[in-house]
Amino acid sequence: MNKLVDIRTSIKHAKNVVIIDDQDVCCTINAAIIKSIDRNIKINMFTETTEALTYIETHKVDLVVTDYLMDKMTGLDFIDRVKSLPESDYISFIIITICSDKLVHRAFRNKGASHIFTKPPELSRLKEACIELLYRPLNQLA
Fold this sequence. Notes:
The structure is a single chain. By secondary structure, the chain is α/β, with parallel strands linked by helices. The chain has one domain: Response regulator (Rossmann fold). The chain contains 5 helices and 5 strands, in the order E-H-E-H-E-H-E-H-E-H. Strands 2-1-3-4-5 form a 5-stranded parallel β-sheet, sandwiched between helices. It is globular, with a radius of gyration of 15 Å.
């Protein structure tokens, strides 16, 4: 009997992560943390939300790690734009922001963000969140 396997949960599927932050150093630090999980994870870093959105429109992305307060659009607006794209149902979101306002954090949760961290995030917790979202079974995807 043939068993169907979704490529999003296949070990052979190279995970694709987009990191957006208007500070290069934050992108670099977050990329290093995620790359430490698995060197085969593809990391795409952007300091401009519009460039990140253009990339996501044309590539299969598993996880987006984004800041909240950025030029051109906020992280909340960015999530709305990504979720309006076809086949965006399987994209997970992690927010890393300087903003500690609980109302903003709640707004991110309402938009579908799985984890929200205040900068600087605890590295082990960020790594655990990425592992959870990148390697959870398909039936647990939102």
